Amino acid sequence: MNKRLISMLLSVLMIFSIVMPAAGAAPTDVLLDRNLLTKAEAKQWKEILAQREEKLAAEPLLDQRLEGLGGESTRVIVELSNKPVAVAQGESTLSGKSFTSSMETNAVTKVEQQQQSFVHSLTQNKINHEVLENYAYALNGVAIEVDGNQMGQLLRIPGVVSVYPDLEITLAPENDEVNPYMKDTAPFIGAPEVWDLGYKGEGIKVGVIDTGIDYEHPNLKDAYKGGWDFVENDDDPYETTREEWKVSEQPEFNANGSSYYTSHGTHVAGTIAAREAGDYGVVGIAPEADIYAYRVLGAYGSGQTSWVLGGIDRSVKDGMDVINLSLGNDANDPSYITSVALNNAMLSGVTAVVASGNEGPNRYTLGSPGASAMAITVGNSTGPSQIITANTHFWIGEDGEGTLPEEQPVPEVEQLPELGIAPETEAPEIPEQGVPVTNPDDSSADAPEADVISEESASPGEGALPVEEQAEAETVTSQDATDPSTEEVTPVEEEETVAPTVTQPNPLTVTESVYRLDVMGWNLSADPEDVLTGQYELEFAGLGKPTDFEGKDFAGKVAFVQRGELAFVEKVANAKAAGAVAVIVYNNLPGPIGLSLGDNFELIPTLSMSKEDGEGIKAQLDAGELVEVSFSDFVHDQTPGDDMYDSSSRGPAKVTLDIKPDVVAPGTSILSTIPAYGKDEPGADYAQAYDRKTGTSMATPHVAGLIALLIEKHPDWTPFDIKVALMNNTKVLDTALYDVFDQGAGRIQALETIDPETFVKVMDVTKYTESGEAVEKENITGSVNFGNFLSTDEKTVSKTLKVQSLKGVGGEYSVTVNPTRSVNGVSVSMDKTSFALNGEEEVQVTITVPKGVTTVGEAQGYLQFSHEAKTYSVPYVAHFNLTESGIKYIETKYGNETNPFHYPLNADGTLDTLDVFMEFHNPMNFALIEIFDGLNPDGGFYQDGYIGSIYGANYTFNANARYKLAWDGQYVDYTTEQETAIPDGLYTVDITSRGTDGKTYREDTPPFLVKTEAPVVKVPETLEIQQMGKDSLMGTVEDLYITVAPALKSGWDYDLDVTKSLKSGYTVKDSTDKKIKEGSFEVESDGSFRISLGELPAGKYSVEFAIEDLQGLVGTSSTSLTVKKDPDPQVPKPSTPSPGSGSGSSGGSSSASSPTPAPASTVIGDASLSEKKNADGTIQATAALSETVINTQLLGDGQEVKLDVSGIEFEKYSQVELTLSKSIADKLQAAGKNLIIEGQTFNVSIPATSLTDFITSNGFSLKLHVLDEQAEKQNVNIVSKIVSIDHNAETFKHNISLTLKYDAKSVKDPRKVIAYHQTTEDAWQPASLSNVSQKGQLEFSVTEPGAYAVVENDVTFGDITGHWAKDEIEVIASQQIAKGMSASVFSPNSTISHAEFATLLDRIFGTGIDWETRSKEAGAQDQLTREKMVMMIADALELEQGPTSISFKDGDQISDEAKSAVAFAVENGLVKGMSGNQFAPKATSTRAQVSVILYRLLEHLDKI
User: Does any domain span residue 855?
Assistant: First the structure.
């Protein structure tokens, strides 16, 4: 696929930023009682509290991101079971009681006592920990730092409900783009009219959880009342300042482009409650509300989830009325921990307002806690956008003598939506840009019609204006969308720095040409009409680069530049720096530019011109003509606004399918306060401390401010009343453009909401998954969700709407259904078309769905209740044949390993084949699979990190089908367009697909390494040290692990421990090449290492280094070492055993005075090896195990003694006898420690109780023989070395453990690997089932002497072809657990008896009980029921009685004695329910069903 096509495809993608986990608010006194509840509200709260109790009854939850961690220090948040204060308050309200301060104190005491008990348990269980935060109000929890491998221990502490990772939080970086939206959005939503009624939010407490606040700002100093800083843990929540950056010795901008100093929280606070000050009209929505700031994000806008939860918790404690959450993460999850905290906050009476996120415009891009059913979720809409045009007069030639450039037809260009005019929206009538005007007062001249559309509109490809990608953060970002980028892309084959060929101008007598040009940008402090009042010389400045201004005088002139290479704002900045008063930019593509920069304090007036007109003016300048320019007839206009901003995240909420966002508000280019950092910079100038920001972060404070006004007017309203009032009284935006998942109920309107006559409450049901089962809960809200209907459904579903009179004034109400999207055959109706309201009226809305509806989509619209001139709207939706859309997954596989961390290598070190699998939720018609370079995310031909592709085609991809691509490591490089092997580095495989629905989807794999190079060890070639051993040998290692570790941490929050990943060792040899000393060392994260060699006798040595990576690639190096002589130096002679070695005698004696000289021995690892030639020419060996090593380990606390003999070539000898002296063998046995002997291809583990089998009067002796033979014998596929244990069978009374290592690449299916035993020549049979099966090795018990090998045992049967359990049956049979009725028949559907199942368990657990014994037991031939099956499994596992919570509908049919076993089996995935959420305890089990369950049991036991 050519790069051009790829570029075009990529340009239509919406690249989403990761948004950040949310927050809460600020401080005051004790929480006060709210009003009593209606019956319906009481029912809702009962359901919420019951849900909490069910959660507590379940097993503790460990977030999947915390599974399988190593020993690295890890921050987590632990939720505990006692009720937080907010829940206790909710229960009190539910019962109709006031929540007094003594009740609050009691609730806090219970929480604190449980937290203290939890911390005490950490200490008792020897769990290394540090307590970071405590929460008592919105959440009962503790943030702690523990070792990653101790997560399982946390779950066993009483009272633990769940454990979540404490994720890092990072704000998305901002770009320089602004748009000319109105300076004050308060009038747009109607706030001034509410102020006129006397409501400005006086005394209402609004908590802002963010980056802090500049409380020195003139607009905010009277609003700020306090707060807390969770970053510095003090009571001063000030923004991170420039002065702090200057002393930090950190870069001003991090790798994501975020500044060290922050401003986000100050901007949000200004929108909510800025007082009137300054010259730019910035006033908050609630200009008399009190702001409490909670700083949870520090330098670079980064923080921790624990800090955000702290903000939420403290805001409840401090009695906030409203909390603003312009934060969230990208998990569309109503059950996420921040959603739990917000739900509890709402229960306590704190109204939570949360941003939906900035990952739109696709469905399901909602974040959390925005997915919370209770919080008020806000999307981002636009306000009015300002448009300015002007007549631009070009005066050509000296003294009025010159020529008029040839007029060009002006192509029509579609206005971009981000400029404030939506497609199909009528723009204000203004003269067309680029049309020459002969009379300045006459703007009616039309350009000739031209059927041309600019390249920006027609093809978002290489020459198009791209939408700037939002920068990704760790797992989380701010809800701020960056504005559309103004970065430009140079068109292909456009020579921009060379003037176009000048055609002979048409000599005219006119001296003036007038063009109607767009003013694309201007300074916020000055109207361009007031600035451009003179006649200015025009000076060409190329592409507007700094070098284009050098050597020229631009002071007081207008710079004339061409579009290309630089962003517009950079061109303007360079012109401003050169002294220009204005800039005219002409296009480098046919037609006008059609883009607006808007206003800010950095701009000077900037106008845009078409390519054709610009080249005409440029020709005059090239011809040496003097060109001057002046401006007149400025026209100011604006678009109406009320469009949805593209990046605003859309619903629905996953699982529940609830309509989200609830409402929308202006959030596009909002002008508000920013810091001038007066706290650290005395005399700071706040005159221009204002700026524009865009995102749902900016929309949310509009709603928070309006809520402050509502609470002032209605202090008795609950948070749920406020939510309904907001949703009932919105302005519904254009439903032809925006559906209910774009805008929710609509855009907020202050005046309509402040004092409504009526509430229209929806008594709805929210659906979600709880403990693995789908459940329904009551939910009072302002929208209707009918749920999902399948084509097989024939249903009628009704919902109740309650209309409540708020002022005691009734009246006639008409009821209508206004569908905006319909489905054939489906009807939505009301049970009444009108009613007279007298206090309260219930209305039923019903959807009727016939069978056979095949539409995939929704029926949606609005239910409208009208009384006189007022209409209350309620959005509704029904889903049909809903399946998830997008890419289900993309993953890599090698053998049975999914997403391997290393790209697999062949034996010769070349790239092997890695399979890429993918599956789609919905049909696709195009897919592009690319390679992303994790070490250079801004590299590649397109500077987006993508270096090339491995697949790209138009192809019909079906939904729910698994597709495989065999990748050989080659890719097509975008730069060279050649196919080449992927080099060593850090990568992901990313897929971009286009669905038949016309939408574009993206997904990627976890990061992986391509690593073909071994570590490079750099040490001195020669070194001279003193004998006393005070010197160290230092060196460095160059390796890919060291390079990628920082990138893995910053890009994926993955900790690669370099020290643990590089196995490093050294060996010291004397001048005769005899091993003197060896040891290991650690490589630091920067690649450095240091070895202390200790005392060595004087002489010459070589020090050999070997460093092995996780793939087995070994790097070596050596140093020639000279040890300077000290008095009486001694270098060991070749015949002298080295320090720490054992004796070389076969009997294990350490005597050095034996009259018979011992054979010459060589120290190899932890043994001293001597050889003896046999009469038949073979060689046998004796390896005397190192007694020094054993004695050292006997002194330690470990439960085993390990000896390394991996350096011995066992295959070389007919037999190797491993020996120990009698004294040391007895000492080892008395210590009760296991002996582990580690060879290159095997490990032997002898328990302390089994040592006696190998000890005689001469000492310990174990004879081994390793056969280098892997041939197939008797159709047995041997994949390991054959290891023989030669021992007297009569004294072999106890089991030992043998681990055999094999090449995982030679095995097709590791699950079918099993140990085989050879008792007589060529007679192979299965040995015991493995104890542990890992990739490349198999551990099993040895019960008798003989030869052992690892075999891949591939068993199948003719009657399971196509059977649903074929895979599991084959594995169980290959492991010799279940056998067929014959060699070709398994009979999968036959039932199984008690005795048969007991025998299968005996084979798994190695009980030694045979079939004959089982067949004679009572009830042996009874058919096995599902209940009895799990009880037998529990008995085999020796489980104690545990939890008995069961959610099956037929749970009452499960006997009491079986409930604990059933709960365990379900929890651990051994068994699952039958259809209809039934367990069917008395049903019998088939051989196939039992095989599947035994397969899961083997997985649970890590035996496969």
Answer: yes
Report yes or no on 1148 lying in a domain. no
Q: What pLDDT was estimated at residue 1459?
A: 86
Provide, rounded to the nearest whole percent, the portion of the chain with pLDDT above 90: 41
Instruction: Please indicate, yes or no, whether residues 504 and 396 belong to a single structural domain of this protein.
Output: yes
End-to-end CA distance of the chain: 42
What is the overall mean pLDDT for the chain?
Answer: 81
Q: Are residues 558 and 633 in the same domain?
A: yes
Angle (CA) 379-383-386 rounded to 5° is: 150
- Give yes or no: 264 in active site: yes
* Global model pTM greater than 0.70: no
d(CA 1242, CA 1167): 16
Q: Quick one: 151 and 46 in the same domain?
A: yes
Four-point Cα dihedral 1315, 1317, 1323, 1325, nearest 10: -50
Query: Where among 638, 661, 680 does a domain terminate?
Result: 638
Do 797 and 855 sit in the same domain of this protein?
yes
Instruction: Find out whether 19 and 478 touch, Cβ atoms under 8 Å.
Output: yes
Residue 17 lies in a domain: no
- Same domain? 521 vs 500: yes
- Residue 660: enclosing H or E segment and its boundaries? none
Question: Phi and psi (nearest 5°) for 265?
Answer: -65, -35
Together in a domain, 854 and 930:
no
Catalytic residue among 129, 264, 702, 902: 264
Q: Are residues 847 and 941 in the same domain?
A: no
- The active-site residue, picked from 17, 129, 162, 210, is 210
Same domain, 1038 and 932: no
- In terms of Cα–Cα distance, which of 1061, 1169, 1187 is closest to 1113? 1061
Between the CA of residue 457 and those of 92, 818, 1268, what are the distances in Å?
60, 34, 70
Does pLDDT of 864 surpass 90?
yes
Which residues neighbour 228 within 8 Å (Cβ) at sequence distance 6 or greater? 26, 27, 234, 235, 237, 294, 295, 310, 311, 314
Indicate whether 495 pLDDT > 80.
no
Rounded to an integer, the average pLDDT of 1167-1191 is 89
How many distinct structural domains can be found in the chain? 6
What's the pLDDT tens digit per position in 193-214? 999 999 999 999 999 999 999 9
What is the tens place of the pLDDT at every residue in 1433-1460?
Answer: 988 888 887 777 777 878 888 888 888 8
Tens-place pLDDT, residues 38-50:
445 455 555 555 5
Q: Which residue in 697, 1146, 1168, 1250 is the catalytic one?
A: 697
Q: What is the CATH number of the domain that holds 962?
A: 2.60.40.2550
Domain span holding position 864: 790-882
